Structure formats: C-alpha cells, structure tokens
Amino acid sequence: MENKFGLDRLTDRSGTNSLKWDVAEGELPMWIADMDFECAPCIKEAVLRRAEHGIYGYNVVPGEWAQAYVDFWQSRYGWKMNGGFLTFTTGIIPAISSLVKRLSNVGDSVALFTPVYDIFFHSIENAGRHTLEVPLVYRGGGYEIDFAVLEEKLSRPLTTLFILCNPHNPCGNVWTEEELSRIAALCKKYGVIVISDEIHFSFVDGGAKYTPFASVSPEAAEISVTCLSVSKAFNIAGMQSAAIYAENAVICNKAVRGVNSDEVAEPNCFAVAATVAALNRGGEWLDEVARYIAANKAFARGYIAANIPALVCARQNCTYLLWLDCSSFCSDSDELTEFIRRSTGLIVSSGAQYRGNGALFIRLNVACPRARLQDGLERLKRAIEAYISRN
C-alpha cells in the first residue's frame, strides 16, 4: 500500500519499555489502543528541537497551546472554543478521576453507557462512587441507546454525573447530533453534569460525523466538561498531554481546582511542543493514517467474513478497534482471549472488562502495518478454529 509516511514500515518496538510490546518472543500484541505507526515527522522534529536544548526544567503552558486546540477543532469540526476555558492536564483518565471527585460526592452514582472503556469504572469506584450502568441495546449487529432506560437512571436522586464516551469505545458508535442533544436535554432536566471523553474523535468512517458534545446546544455547553487529547489521533500517549474544557464558570473552576489539587496539571518538557506540532502541522499525516486505517478495517472485515465466519464484526463507524462478536461459540471472552494467546501468541482484549454484554466480544486493534495485521488475522483464524474444535 503506497503512502507518504512509511505506514507499512515494521518498526521494532522491543526494548523501548512499551506497555504494548513488552511481551514474550513470538507474541503479537493487538489489544491496547496504541498504533504501530511512527508519529508525524513534525512531532519528531519538535521533540528533537526541544531535546537539543539540553535543560529540562519545570514548564509552563504557553498561549499557543490553547490556540492550537481552538484552531484545530474549529477548522475540522466547526466548534469554536474559548481558549480561556481550556486547561492542560497530563491525561484524560487522570482528569476524569479528578472530575469525579470534584463534581460529585462519596456515595453518588455515576451513569455511563456499557459496554465502555473499563478504566472509567476505576475512576468512579476508587473514589467511593457507584457505577450506574446504562446498557446499550445490541440489535442487528450494532448498538443503540434506550432513552427510556437512560432517563430512568438519570432521574434517580443520587445520579449526579454521566460519563459519555464520544465517539464510543469499544462499541464504535459515533453519536449523532440528535442523540447528543437528547442526552443533553435529559441531563439538564435531572441536574446531571456530563463528562465527555472525546479522545477517539479522529478515525471516523465516511458517512459518519464526529460532533463535540458541548457544541450541540447551549444547554450541552452549560452542563458539561469536555476531555480532549490528540494522544490517540497522533499516537503520542507517552507524551502525557490532554486538555479539559468547560464553558460553565462553576464547573470550569471546580475542574481546574481538581486537576491542580491532584497534581495532574503540569506538562513534562515535551508535552506542549508535541501537541502544538501535531495540531498545527500534523493534518496531512493524520488524514493519511485515517485512510490507511479505513483500508485496514475493510481488509480485516473481509478476511474475517471469508475465513472466520464464527466471528461477527459489530457494526461500527469509528476507531481502529474492531469489536468482534463471538457469541455463536463462546460466552466467556476472558477464557477465549487467554486461549488465543496461549495457542498462537496473539494478544487481543477481552470484552468482559467493559461490562454490559462485553463477555460476548473481543477487541482487535488494526492500527498497524498491513503485514502485521495479516499475521494477526491468520493467528486469530487458527485460534478460533482450534477453540471451536476443542469444544
């Protein structure tokens, strides 16, 4: 596959203390949301330029950081943020953990759609709050919101927060403007604050449209805090750089106090440079990666349909994480993923950790060079055939 940025290059990530690639010899990790593409050249240049200075002391966040966020989201998604309401944080999950503690009380309930990214549960439950699942309805190979169930959960007196994953991980839904507006109206009605995690904004399939939650209506902006980061889009999670945004002054002040009190509001010396470079000069790279991932998803879905018919690719329109329905032959994805790894060395995510009906699914990361993806799919085929024949 021809591409300008060497996306077919099989970069060796061993020996780099990589969470994803610190595995046994012969194993192939395709689980965590971490791409196997080298980052945009402009990011590497910015980091090297900063490194060459030779002094790595404490850093401040310059105005160009906020302006880069404002310009990027306005030019690509038509959302005009006020840079004065943007606050640096080291990551979306540290921010959410702080926000849960600042915007709710011990014993409160925090609602969220499930299955969903599992670390949300930790942010809620480690703070002494209760997870209130709003199960998404799995119908016709895709997920839908049951707004009657959502309203009932939001109407409970102790429900004070709703964590929204927009777009949604792992189900792969890009929520529509209508869906987001209905969520906002219900949360406003019942006095529930929305924390919207929008880290997966970038890889949306053709025909779908990512819409920032706070942009859909004045009431959505009034009742929400948005968590933004380019770490997934530009594959720079290790830079520990993200932002929170809230237009409501009360929510904004509580959010800022929270991330500062928890000491997650100071950048390392490369975070700002990498983020500004990505937002201001990385667009061409991002667009090419999006095209490559779209082709990888199409290739993987075709391969699975032709060669692993027992697996069903759930209907999705975002992310580089395939959500694979194994319910025709397995109801315990923990057991299945352990078997896949033991028998072939392929490492994929068990859907059980995401709650909801996740135990019937596995999650596969396709953001890698095509040769590596083909290797992973062939291993998956062997493992599923062996698992079915064993049972």
What does this 3D model show about the protein?
This protein is α/β, with parallel strands linked by helices. It is globular, with a radius of gyration of 21 Å. It folds into two domains: 117 residues, Aspartate Aminotransferase, domain 1, CATH 3.90.1150.10; 237 residues, 3-Layer(aba) Sandwich (Aspartate Aminotransferase, domain 2), CATH 3.40.640.10. Helix 2 packs parallel to helix 9. Strand 7, helix 6 and strand 8 form a beta-alpha-beta unit. It is 40% helix and 16% strand. The chain contains twelve helices and 15 strands. The longest helix has 25 residues. The protein starts with 27 loop residues before the first strand and ends with a helix. A seven-stranded mixed beta sheet has the order 2-10-9-8-7-3-4, sandwiched between helices. Strands 11-12-15-14 form a four-stranded antiparallel beta sheet.
Characteristic terms for this protein:
391 residues, alpha/beta, Aspartate Aminotransferase, domain 1, Aspartate Aminotransferase, domain 2, 2 domains, 7-stranded mixed sheet, 4-stranded antiparallel sheet, globular
